[in-house]
Amino acid sequence: MSAVGDDHTGSLTMTAARRPSWRLDTIALIAGLGWIAVGVFTLQWPEEGDFARTPEFGNAAIGFGALLALLSVAAGWSPVIATRLKAVSRWLVVLAVWFGVWEAVTAKYALLPMPFFPPPQAILEVFLDDWRRLGESVWRSFALLGGGYLVGAAVGFITGVAIGWSRAVGYWVHPLLRFVGPLPATAWLPLAFFLFPSSWSASTFLIALATGFPVTVLTWSGIAGVSKAYYDVARTLGASERFLILKVAIPAAMPHVFVGLFMGLGGSFAVLVVAEMLGVKAGLGWYLQWAQGWASYANMYAALAVMALSCSGLITLLFKLRDRLLSWQRGLVQW
Amino acid sequence: MVASARVRDAGGSAGSTLDVRHVSHAFALEGAPLPVLEDVSFTVEPGQFVALLGPSGCGKSTLLRLVAGLEPPSSGGLVTDGRPIAGPHPSRVVVFQDPTLFPWRTVRANVALGLEAQGLLKTQASRIGEALDLVGLSGFENAYPHQLSGGMAQRVALARALVNEPSLLILDEPLGKLDSLTRLAMQAELVQLWQRARFTALLVTHDVEEALILAERVIVFSERPARIKADIRFDRPYPRHRDDPALIQARREILALLGVPD
Ligand SMILES: Nc1ncnc2c1ncn2[C@@H]1O[C@H](COP(=O)(O)OP(=O)(O)OP(=O)(O)O)[C@@H](O)[C@H]1O
Ligand SMILES: [Mg+2]
Which residues cross the membrane (chain A) (predicted)? Predict the structure, then answer.
């Protein structure tokens, strides 16, 4: 649905870009000039304080602005660049303004209290000087999250299918799920750190728990909601019980399963950060805690930015996976 | 399951007999029993084409579900080829009133469903293309159900049944959703198919003319609870024509039975 719509507007802009033989993307050019202005302002204006990476930030802003200006001209020749640029150009203008104001109220005029609100160059400094520790933290977080999430998703999926399919399993598991499921996984934290041999295994368990609950419930409701007519068709064609589960119930329930996987991923982020802050001593959550201990607020902002980027990256990845597996749904529901 | 299918292949796909013996059926609707079928008895010979006619909601689809083995009757029994019907079997395939294609499967994969369920996909895959050819849908193998028209979907459902080479084909208004032109073409196709494969056919339809174009025998049911009101033999050679005086005469009689003045 939306893909078709995009293609359509895409081809429209292409013809619009081609007909007047040469046309510049004005908004992108404004964005480019804005970024150059931010860079010049950063480099030339006197600072209230001493920041090591001011030249790098200023030059980067000028370089980025120059690149944008070049692309805004190149958009006249290349429809591909034109469409790509058009999609982001207004945001780039707003970001230029944002960075300009940020630079002004922190480094240049110190209108905001200093250690709590570092200027952009201070955060760039963290990336340039502390990337090793930051990278290590990202890697540790991913490893912990990945293990827990995969275990939780797999267990949740199997449990959900079992409850949805078998009355006997439902009888025993359903009350457990009703009673224990709504408890936030973080509530188990003190107990888990005490019961498990290592903080790593305790955290894996908690992340799996946070993921497993929504995946179980949604898989179950997906399986329970499969139309009886599908089973009738399959049964008259000679389907065994195994076939009914694997080839009818599970594919029909997949859209629900994915809703559970999305919810589980969101929940697992929360548990990951808390677990890292309280016990694991590694990963981005720990990095945040550590930065706060040293009152290095620039490091905290940098870590938050990396965390936001990682989380949204993982969500995007899951979206891509769903788009692949559930492409048949495209014509049936609005994405 | 695989073994029984092989036996059927080896023995040729002649139609099976169907014996419906004093079948009554009732549903529970809001606690009270709702009688739907009342003492229905008839015997279908191997290879016979039988049409079932009756008012809407009288219980025709219910009878077909019992024949398919999807539900046991409240009382009475159903027997095919001397064996009681205890559950569904791929030799008795149903084309349901709704096409109920699996939306996550392509047209080809939908048609392959029966072969896949019976473990015949590896050896018998060529049948899928033949079945799709038969219903005029070659070229749409990779389409998804939501990309088909209602009539095309119903034809896929027909192909999905035919690919199993059933000995008893159960058709619940399979042409109901088709436009009138496609419908006429499919009626002719169905007759040819039946003459070639000699399966036994049980067809529910609302269209008296369709029943008389296709069937050798028409069973007319009463209002719910359905009882057999008339059992009419109609032995005319195929292909039949709508303007055949005998057909027009039979049509008038059946419409009168159904309480519709002609
Ligand atoms: N699962 C069910 N539970 C309760 N009542 C049912 C059920 N299935 C069918 N019925 C009832 O049984 C009666 C017969 O239904 P059936 O579908 O067999 O009718 P039909 O003759 O096929 O009608 P139509 O020609 O409109 O398709 C209807 O009154 C319906 O409400
Ligand atoms: Mg019906």
Answer: 27-45, 57-80, 92-111, 142-164, 176-196, 202-223, 244-274, 294-319
**CB contact burial A90-128 (16+ within 10 A = b; e otherwise):** eebbebbeebbebbbebbbeeeeeeeebbbbbbbbbbbe
Bridge partners for B75 per DSSP = B24
Alpha-carbon gap, residue B123 to A296, rounded angstroms: 69
All structural domains of chain A, each given as residue ranges with its CATH number in brackets, are 14-119 (no CATH), 131-327 (1.10.3720.10)
Q: In what order do the strands lie in the sheet with B32-44?
A: B32-44, B18-29, B75-80, B83-84
Separation CA A195–CA A201 (nearest Å) = 10
Q: Which residue does chain B place closest to A333, by CA atoms?
A: B146
Domain ranges of chain B: 18-91+167-257, 103-165
Chain B residues within 8 angstroms (CB to CB) of chain A = 1, 5, 65, 68-70, 87-90, 92-94, 96, 98, 100, 102-105, 113-114, 116-118, 144, 146-147, 160, 164
Is B18-91+167-257 assigned to CATH 3.40.50.720?
Answer: no
- Quote the pLDDT of residue A277: 86
Q: What is the pLDDT of residues A84-110, one digit of tens each?
A: 998 999 999 999 999 999 999 998 888
Interface with chain A: mutation pick from B113, B115, B160, B172, highest number of A CBs within 10 Å: B113
Q: What is the pLDDT of residues B165-179, one digit of tens each?
A: 899 999 999 888 778
pLDDT at B111 over 90: yes
List, for residues A242-272, the tens digit of each pLDDT value.
999 999 999 999 999 999 999 999 999 999 9
Interchain CB distance below 8 Å, A238 and B100: no
ipTM: 0.88
Its pTM stands at: 0.82
Tell me, using a 6 A CB cutoff, whether residue B36 lines ligand 1: yes
